[in-house]
Amino acid sequence: MATGRELPINERASAFQMAETIFADDVQVVSASYSGDRDSSGIYTNGDSVMPGVAPGNTGVILSTGDADDITQSNGDPNRSSSTSTNTWGQNGNPDFNAAAGAYTYDASYLDVDIIPQGDVLTFQFVFLSEEFPEYQTGIYQDFVGIWINGELVPLSIGDGDVDPNNLNAQSNANLYVDNTGDDYNTEMDGFTVTMSVTIPVNAGEVNSIRIGIADVNDSNYDSSVMIAAGSGTTAIVAMADSAQVAPNENATFDVTSNDIGTGAITITHINGIAVSVGDSVTLTTGQVITLNADGTLTATADADEETVNFTYTVQDATGGTSTGFVTLASVPCFVAGSVIDTSHGPRLVESLKPGDLIRTKDHGLQPLRWIGTRTIAAEGDMAPIEIAANTFGPHMRLQVSPMHRILVRDGRAALMFGENEVLIAAKHLVDGQYVRRIEGGEVTYVHLLFDAHEIVFSNGLPSESFLPGPMIASLFEREVLAEICTLFPELDPETGEGYGPAARRILTGSEARALTGVAA
Question: InterPro entries, from UniProt (predicted)?
């Protein structure tokens, strides 16, 4: 158990001082302004000694929906309350936060900064802390960290893209979440993330406008904060997101630094926040063991579970600069065996289909199936199927799909919000606990259908997507399977997913889906 010790925070730091603290020398701060309660922001110091295992850096900036100094206690138990709350004078109903969170927001605290970066990809490192953990982590109170560049919302590169409790809890992203209900760490917050990062495309040598902030969602109770490491706002060293696949009880080796940006040699220093040297291994919460090899690659040793997980790694370049990136051990959107697909010969079980079969599509009539793949796994956790009750989205039968399988949703509000009447939403973003539910237990067989183009097909009468190759396709399949797909589609780049074609409809993020449907996924 930790002992309470107050984190020094200068709550009177100006917006320009906070901006200069966040950004490194390669990013010029032109101007900065702060919006929010005067006690909800500041520059913190001594993070390494006062909040070990929590703060993303020894010095940095904190933005909060409550009083910033409530992040720690001065003595005794560090976490005395499960509901620390301050109804501040921060902004309520900010349009950007409302749109991003998909709900009305309160107590917003944010920085607006104009910068001139030297490079064209910007990153910074941060930790999200919240009292919404664990009681409301899947409820409607999704306190939200928002980052915008030149007016565009920047998604996190893992999960549903949101920095909120729903995307970053012990169930949805166990390796990125740290529970503090047992007072193990010196913070009043009940839970927080490991140090994470965002990668942001910017216009090099030009003025770019960035907004960074946090807001309460659906009420002003239960505080949340974001801590941003000093000097981590840089284009000089950027750890880019990576993906890989490892089969149950097997090993996979991959190079996560090959696409990173830096000066000279780039060295991995941490795996999921734990310092490592060559030969060291880190066991993730989800059971995989990640080992740093002498050549700078990582080897993942899987347990018996087949699942999609995320973890972080930190690199350092020759100048001493550091950056944190994500690695995803990924899964594929797919149908569940037993589903019935509309074909030229009427409805047929999806697992009985063969390449060459003519499948009825919404946009292009009958189309030949080019490739089909199957796998059977335990129906547990993130890999458990999503069941959609009959007639939930129009006339259709009950259907089960994988969590990432996207359903075609028709809604007049979509035209107002996104300019299209029909959009694609991942099944996991439609879960409401009543008509759309996660079904755990036993085994499930997932089936993947691939066409010449991304298609909308009919399964149990419900329109949903076929498989869409994306940037992670090289890590999603075994080498023989990938070679088969690339033979069928020679223009497909297995590293980027380019060369296949666009999505059949606009694909909504988790926050966009919640804004449209009102479902607190």
Answer: Choice_anch_L (IPR049804), Hedgehog/Intein_dom (IPR028992), Hint_dom_sf (IPR036844)
